[in-house]
Design brief:
Structural class of chain A: alpha/beta
CATH architecture of the largest domain in chain A: 3-Layer(aba) Sandwich
CATH architecture of the largest domain in chain B: 3-Layer(aba) Sandwich
Oligomer: heterodimer
Number of helices of chain A: 13
CATH topology of the largest domain in chain A: Aspartate Aminotransferase, domain 2
CATH class of the largest domain in chain A: Alpha Beta
Strand order of the largest sheet of chain A: 1-7-6-5-4-2-3
Strand content of chain A: 5-15%
CATH class of the largest domain in chain B: Alpha Beta
Number of domains of chain A: 2
Number of strands of chain B: 15
Distance between the termini of chain A: 48 Å
Largest interface: A-B, 198 and 204 residues
CATH superfamily of the largest domain in chain A: Type I PLP-dependent aspartate aminotransferase-like (Major domain)
Chain lengths: 486, 444
């Protein structure tokens, strides 16, 4: 029978928009003393002060404390959002990034005065190169999609250097959603590639459309069905034989650390998400960090500046004539890099391997435990995530969305829903390695209980959620008459 | 390993359910030929104690560890961050949440970002602000792409050469592969963008002017707007110092179509240049052309007010290759930080802090002038300005860094080779009169 569910009732505070708390004359900062003469600016250049809210310090603290209480984070409960790797974000990483020497560092202080930051970046590049099996890494991309763009720009620059640009790129139906948009930014036309009946790519299908006008292929491995692309080596060979390059989307790297090095199986360029695999918090939407790893052949195209080691000192180098250029105003999200660096040093080689093993164990355990409850379109050993759908619930007019919303009442963040598109009504579960067996058992029990409710009391699902501050929101009205400011 | 909860017993039980004989057996679908044979070559894992020592040692190799007098801006500013900001933003309900795809349990993030969007529109005098970008450089590059999509006949963007040099490089990176071109508008001897040079340009989809510009000077945005209108192209403005809008006329009041900015000044640490906060605002007319996430207000099924991510048909996960941008993760937590900072300083505080920045900068300029520095340009500025240094300054500047951790200005020669011996100074509310007097004494 169901163990105690984590979600329960509680006191939820109302809180108006911050400007509704404003009262003329309040200010929540102690203004510094003016020790120099006032120098009024030419009135022709000045305008009215922005109409910001006027609050006391406690007003501000209470406002944001209440807002935070309407949120669900990894620290609140299990967050099995597929392809997002919502693992525990270690608190010591935050302490490390907040050290004055890092947080207070000015980006233009000069190499001599920034040796600690440069050394950290250099070493992190080396560690990521080792984990992925590539020759060089840039840390500059600010997020996963930014890393994808960097990777596509590198592929574009490579073909330009070969003297003949290509016009197309192959994107499998199991790839991440950002892939086609990143390819478009480089002027490549996306060619959709269907995966085979086993949910993975078939070499014959790739060979049939790969030609000398195709710049390459973008492969997510493990793919978004949570399946390892078993034919990866052969596919890379087919693409290379036609002069193309293989882009690897490393968003799912959490499954294979210490198990597979993408750089050693034929992938040419790969991006990582430090905010997924390497434990940095997602911040309700970012900031992330999307390093890109490349083979020796592609090193000249990496963005500038590069960090280089000269005996035992480190320096930024910009003299790279074939570089794709600069992607970020400074060097990328250094504060995020510090956290990922601290994570790698804490885990070590064995720790990272164990993380991947346990992430895959957790996903397979859920897959086996729920496959009689939810339909499992591809019943094969999975990697770090598994994809169900709502085929079993459809006779009761219950959808994936209904089950997802009902999970909220049970105290769980829902899985990723309706993605990947290759499965109708996807329900994509990625537990990550940091969830314990007890927490996972509670989740499994919750899904089973919800499946029973779907048969006996479907209204409980269609009306869900009832416990959060608000219930289902009218997204159609929001888009039809957009109200984007107060 | 303290982050991994599995006991040996758990592992055995779970393997049995999964139908696997060992942890290695979980990876049986991976061909042996692609498997790692000899493990990863990484340093031995550190305990938290060892990690603290190691990280403090690294941090101490950055001069910032000692606390320093920062008279450099150029896109990263040394402002005071009130204690409540890091305290509130580190609440894990904000920090450890994902993008708010499930709005029922993300109302904190969503209302916070809605309020952020609102405050940014107030700050800039614009209709709409997005939920954030990576930094000003990437936001500005996105603005350039919008202009090119709106004016399909043109394939060039005119960009002032007093736009931050790194921002110009980022625009170049974004534009090049699609076959677009960035043409530079030169500056005059007065340290302002050459309006006549822009007038002579044809076939441009947009014009981008930074104000205050890289030299700190306030540009004639009204004049540039007129020319942009004559040329029927989009008028894009940018800025690196968000607190300037506590004092200056807002870019929206000059008719900017798009504004890209850096929001790092709004309560965010310098962190060696990132993560900062890309701000992007536009007119209502451009609502459906904007890249990135937008939060909108709506009602729930019970008629209660609530917030959702909206207009997602512009975005990559729906429109795929036809999306207005590939951006997915943004700098959400820093947007939340900026909203907290703006709520904290409020209408009174922003005016006062902005005025203080200006006062200190005027004072610094005057004491440097007394110390033999030459004020090259006679232009109104906010908190940054350019001075030509006496001949021996380079050595003195290096000594000041080494002996007193004072960063006295940014050498402009690497960015503008003709400006040898010219330095870009910045003074914020954090620098005291005493520090500035001391500096003037040292460099005289």
């Amino acid at each position: 029978m169901m163990t105690q569910r984590p979600g329960t009732k509680g006191l939820i505070f109302n809180e108006p928009n911050v400007w509704n708390k404003s009262r003329e004359g309040r200010c929540a900062i102690s203004l510094p003393k003016a020790d120099v003469e006032r120098s009024p600016m030419d009135p022709a250049l000045t305008g009215d002060a922005p109409d910001l809210p006027q609050l006391s310090e406690l007003d501000v603290v209470r406002h944001y404390t209440r807002l935070s209480q309407w949120n669900f984070g990894v620290d609140s409960g299990m967050y099995p959002l597929g392809s997002c790797t919502m693992k525990y974000n270690p608190k010591t990483n935050e302490v490390q990034a907040a050290r004055q020497g890092f947080a207070g560092a000015h980006p233009l202080a000069g190499d001599d005065c920034s040796q600690g930051a440069l050394r950290l970046m250099y070493d992190l590049e080396q560690y990521l190169a080792e984990i992925t099996g590539f020759d060089a890494v840039t840390l500059q991309p600010a997020a996963g999609a930014h890393g994808e763009l960097a990777g596509m720009l590198i592929i574009h620059a490579y073909h330009a250097k070969q003297g003949r640009q290509r016009s197309k790129i192959l994107i499998p139906d199991t790839a991440h959603g950002t892939n086609p948009a990143s390819a478009t930014l480089c002027g490549y036309k996306s060619i959709n590639l269907k995966s085979g009946p086993k949910g993975i790519l078939e070499p014959e299908a790739v060979a049939a459309i790969m030609d000398e006008d195709t710049a390459g292929i973008m492969i997510t491995n493990p793919n978004t069905l949570g399946l390892f692309e078993e034919n990866i080596k052969e596919i890379c060979e087919i693409v290379h034989a036609k002069g193309g390059l293989v882009y690897g989307d490393g968003a799912n790297m959490n499954a294979i650390m210490g198990v597979v090095k993408p750089g050693k199986v034929g992938i040419d360029v790969l991006h990582l998400n430090l905010h997924k695999t390497f434990s940095t918090p997602h911040g309700g939407g970012g900031p992330g960090s999307g390093p890109v790893a490349v083979t020796k052949e592609l090193m000249p195209f990496l963005p500038i500046p590069r960090v280089e080691k000269d005996l035992d000192t480190f320096k930024f180098v910009t003299d790279c004539p074939d570089s794709i250029g600069r992607l970020h105003t400074f060097y990328g999200h250094f504060g995020v890099m510090v956290k990922a660096y601290a994570y790698i040093l804490t885990m070590g080689a064995q720790g990272l391997l164990n993380a991947s093993r346990l992430a895959v164990l957790n996903a397979n355990y859920i897959k086996e435990s729920l496959k009689k409850t939810l339909n499992l379109p591809y019943d094969r050993p999975c990697m770090h995530e598994c994809v169900f759908n709502d085929a079993n619930q459809q006779p009761h007019h219950i959808t994936t969305m209904d089950m997802a919303k009902r999970l909220l009442d049970y105290g769980f963040h829902p899985p990723t829903v309706y993605f990947p598109l290759v499965v109708d009504g996807s329900f994509m579960v990625e537990p990550t390695e940091t969830e314990s067996k007890e927490d996972i058992d509670q989740f499994i029990d919750a899904v089973k209980a919800i499946a029973r409710e779907a048969e006996t009391d479907p209204e409980k699902l269609t009306r869900a959620p009832v416990l959060p501050k608000v219930t289902r929101l009218d997204e159609v009205a929001a888009a039809r008459k957009p109200c984007l400011r107060g | 390993m303290r982050y991994l909860p599995h006991t040996q017993e758990d592992i055995q039980k779970m393997l049995t359910v999964a139908g696997c004989s060992s942890l290695d057996d979980l990876f049986k679908t991976i061909p042996d030929a692609v498997k790692v044979k000899d493990g990863l070559n990484l340093p031995e894992p550190l305990s938290e104690w060892e990690l603290n020592d190691h990280m403090e040692n690294l941090a101490s190799q950055n001069i910032a560890c000692k606390g320093y007098t920062c008279l450099i801006g150029a896109g990263s500013y040394d402002h005071y961050i009130p204690a409540i900001i890091p305290y509130l933003v580190s609440r894990s309900e904000f920090a450890t949440a994902y993008t708010p795809y499930q709005p029922e349990v993300s109302q904190g993030t969503l209302q916070g970002i809605y309020e952020f969007q609102t405050m940014v529109t107030d700050l800039l005098g614009m209709d709409i602000a997005t939920a954030s970008h990576y930094d000003c450089g990437t936001a500005l590059a996105e603005c350039a792409l919008i202009a090119l999509r709106k004016n399909r006949k043109a394939d060039k963007i005119a960009v002032s050469d007093l736009v931050h040099p790194s921002h110009r490089q980022v625009i170049d990176t974004y534009l090049n592969p699609a076959g677009y071109e960035m043409v530079l508008i030169p500056h005059t001897q007065d340290g302002l963008t050459d309006i006549a040079a822009l007038e002579a340009m044809d076939g441009i989809a947009g014009v981008a002017i930074q104000s205050p510009n890289f030299f700190g000077h306030i540009e004639d945005l009204a004049g540039f707007k007129k020319i942009a209108d004559d040329k029927k192209c989009l008028f894009i403005t940018s800025f690196t110092e968000a607190l300037a809008w506590g004092l200056l006329k807002k870019p929206g009041s000059f008719g900017a179509d798009l504004v890209a900015g850096e929001g790092q000044s709004l309560g965010i640490s310098k962190s060696f240049g990132g993560p900062g906060l890309g701000l992007l605002a536009g007119t209502s007319k451009l609502m459906r052309d904007l890249p990135g996430r937008l939060v909108g207000r709506t009602k729930d099924a019970n008629g209660e007010d609530g917030y959702v991510l909206t207009l997602s048909t512009r975005e990559q996960h729906i429109r795929r290759e036809k999306a207005s941008s590939n951006i997915c993760s943004n700098n959400g937590l820093n947007a939340m930080t900026a909203a907290m900072y703006l709520s904290t300083i409020g209408k009174i505080g922003i005016r006062e802090i902005a005025q203080l920045n200006h006062d200190k900068a005027v004072y610094l300029k005057s004491v440097l002038a007394d110390a033999g520095f030459e004020p090259v340009f006679d232009q109104p500025f906010f908190n940054e300005f350019v001075m030509k240094a006496p001949k021996n300054f380079k050595q003195k500047r290096a000594d000041l860094i080494n002996r007193q951790c004072v960063f006295a200005g940014l050498d402009l020669a690497p960015y503008y080779p003709e400006l040898n011996d010219h330095y870009l100074f910045c003074a914020t509310e954090k620098v005291s009169k005493q520090q500035m007097d001391q500096l003037a004494k040292e460099v005289a």
